[in-house]
Structures are given as C-alpha cells and as structure tokens.
Amino acid sequence: MTRAPANLLAVRRLLLDHLNIDPDTVRSDDLEPAEVGIVGDPNHRGGYHCGSDRVVTNDYSVVESTRDSSGLTLDAAALDVGLFRARSGGSTHDLYTFSTWCVAQCVANTPDSRDLREIIYSPDGKVVRRWDRLRRRTTGDDSHLWHTHFSFFRDSIRAGRDQTPLFRRYLTTIGLLEDDMPLTDADQPIIRAAVHSTQIGRTGVTVGQVLDQMRLLPGQVEALRAELTQLAARDFTDEPAVIQGVLAGLTPEKIAAAIPDSLARQVADELARRLAA
Asked: Residue 27: how many CB atoms within 10 A of its CB?
C-alpha cells in the first residue's frame, strides 16, 4: 500500500505549524490539514502521489529519470499544498506568491531545491504553469489553480533526505519563522582568522566539508550556503570583501558549530601564536 514517507510528513507538519494560524477553526485564510496531501486517493493510479503498488506502464514518475527508477518504493513522492493567506512583515503572502518563490529557487538551482523534479502551480489563480527540471512538460490541469503540486525525485525520498530546508527558508524569508540569532560585527575577526589560516589544506579539511557542516545549522547559516558554495570556487584575494559581503557578523557560537574540531584546534593555536607575537 502506498505510504506517506517521514521526510514529506515533516514538510507537511512544518507548513501546517506556521500557515494554519488557527488550528482549532477551519478558516479560508488558513492552510488546513485537508489541503496538504501526500498520498493519492484509493483510485489514483500513476504519478508521484503513488508508490510502487500503484504505478502504471511507462509511468512518467518512474521511467523518465534514473533518480526515479532507482528510488521507487511504496512511498509517495509528491506534496500538494492548498490555498492560504498570511500577513507578515507588512505584506500578504499566499499560495501564489509561495509557489512562484519556490519555482524561482528551482530555476536558480539552490542546493535545497535540487531534489524537486517539478512544480505544477498558478502564479495568479488564472493560469496554470509547470516547471519541470527535466523539461519534458509545461502544462497542468485546472485543479492547480487552487493547489500547488511538488514532485520529488524518488531517490531522495528513498534515502530519507530532509526536505524541510527549502520550505523553512521560505517561512524565514517572509518572517513567519525566526532565525536562531542575528549576525553581529563582533565575529569578523574569527572569520578572518579562519580564512587566513593555512592549516586547512594540511589537515585535509576542505572548504566543501566545512560548508556541509554549516548546512546543518538552522536559520541564517542555511541561507548563506549557496553563496558560500559559489565562493569556494573563487579567488579569495579580496578577503575583506568576502568577509563583509557574505560572512560578516557570524557569532562565535555559529562558527564553532560549523568548524570541525581538528580545524578549530588549529585556528585556536594560530590565534594564540599571533596574540603572543
């Protein structure tokens, strides 16, 4: 029997926690539990809302990508999100602005959107559009005027990969979810010491590994990951600009959490040496 995987249930719970403002009352402005679906109804056959027991011959959700064919299990790999309206930060946010924001992240190929295969949505409640990473389809039926469909590559569902970061970042961006703590200028010397340190290469710790560590941090550090990934391939000759533009103001706690223990010890030793000089 097709089942709802834990990682999509976590996305569902996250959205309901922050967009179902009054959980005890059914309101048109709220995102209600019945409006966030994962598994298709019993008559549903074929597509990402179905697991291996309900796929059909030449099912597009299986045969068009090895990420899907290799990841096929009884788990559904889709999420539907219905209508809502929320006021935050002096602006009104709804299904249409949410959907276009998510599509923009996919177009930009942000790290937290790369497991999405497609989004079928409406930007205005009048026309239906479809963003397809595989560029196979551009249309959808009229039901997507009032709900948005997200398809996830099945291998990401099978792997149990966390799918909440993209949606958490949206909620943070519109002000419904707060960052853990603000950035301050007091932490620039720590970042500068880490950037200047020549110990990284000798310890075998790569920039990518540090970024992977930082991705585990909530809030603002997660939002910076895409920028840090780009910076990893750049010439770091303009260090002040790098520090000011991307990492300015990180707190000591966040830096300590992001840097592996071995590298932290190297940085501490280097700082001690410079202070004693």
From this structure: 14
pLDDT tens-digit map of 225-238: 555 555 555 544 45
| Rg for the chain, CA atoms, rounded | 22
pTM exceeds cut of 0.90: no
- Angstrom distances, CA of residue 135 to CA of 64, 115, 277: 11, 15, 59
Nearest CA to 171 among 21, 23, 19?
Answer: 19
DSSP conformation class of 79: E
How far are the Cα atoms of 144, 208, 256 from residue 214, in angstroms, in the given order? 36, 10, 10
Task: Name which of 137, 129, 141 is nearest 65 in CA terms.
Answer: 137
DSSP state of 274: H
Tokens representing 93? Answer: 């946010």
Query: Number of C-alpha atoms within 13 angstroms, CB side, residue 6?
Result: 5
The pairing of beta strand 91-94 with beta strand 85-88? antiparallel
